[in-house]
Design goal:
Order of helices and strands: EHEHEHEHEHEHHHE
Shape: globular
Mean pLDDT: 96
Strand order of the largest sheet: 3-2-1-4-5-6-7
Structural class: alpha/beta
Number of helices: 8
Length: 242
């Protein structure tokens, strides 16, 4: 029977490439999206074009009812969930001293509350032998100005992962975090000057920005047969950025 993977935030960026890679690996893929149904359906069409199986499911990861439905629909249709990749997130920037509480609450709601809700449902529904993979960021090691809310949210995700890995003892389920460095996606490039992008590109010893495919390769490893002994870890896929 085909194994099933849920990928949150899969209509664009890293999530889109991860969804397509898992389809290539033989998974049926649940393409989660927040608001752009047409982009999500494009991903499903691309998955079907390579002989895979996919469905699009709308859900706001910060909304508990939505997240419950995100898991209920695949369970009804396929009967099992074998891999959960929680990629969905936002990255608005603001210095702490500005005291932009509205921005802070929005980042924490999407990135940390969203991770808690998705991980909670994954813990309830993941099949024996399954894999749970969340996303953090290698920027945690850099402490860049204006990244306070984002870093706080992703530090929380790493904390949740370590605890959940212990809570799932005895079920043969691994829980890990992938922490990308700078990756050339719309989310990362938005609002940055060419000079800033060039500077960030030179930070890793490999002297380039990551590509979404670089991150999808790591997720594929963790979700596949060769990644089964990796558990409770943060894999920093960053070219040596941090």
């Amino acid at each position: 029977m085909k194994k099933i993977a849920i990928v949150t935030g899969a209509s664009r960026g890293i999530g889109r490439v991860v969804a397509k890679r898992l389809a290539q690996d033989g998974f049926g893929v649940v393409v989660n999206y927040l608001s752009n149904a047409s982009e999500a359906e494009e991903v499903v069409a691309e998955i079907k074009a390579i002989g895979g199986e996919g469905i699009a499911v709308q859900a706001d990861v910060a909304n508990q009812t939505d997240v419950e439905r995100l898991f209920e629909e695949p369970m009804k249709r396929f009967g099992s969930i074998d891999v959960v990749v929680h990629n969905s997130g936002i990255m608005p920037l603001s210095p702490i001293g500005k005291s932009d509480v509205e921005l802070f609450d929005k980042v924490i709601s999407t990135n940390l509350r969203g991770a808690f809700l998705v991980l909670a449902q994954a813990a309830q529904h993941i099949a024996t032998g399954g894999r749970i993979i969340a996303f953090s960021s290698s920027v945690l090691a850099k402490n860049f100005p204006t990244y306070g809310p984002y870093i706080a949210s992703k530090a929380g995700v790493e904390g949740l992962m370590h605890v959940l890995a212990n809570e799932l003892r005895g079920r043969n389920v691994s829980v890990n975090v992938v922490a990308p460095g700078p990756v050339a996606t719309e989310l990362f490039l938005k609002g940055k000057s060419e000079e800033q992008i060039a500077e960030l590109s030179k930070m890793p010893p490999l002297e380039r920005l990551g590509k979404p495919e670089d991150i999808a390769n790591v997720v594929s490893f963790l979700a596949g047969p060769d990644g089964g002994w990796i558990n409770g870890q943060v894999l920093r896929a960053n070219g040596g950025f941090a």
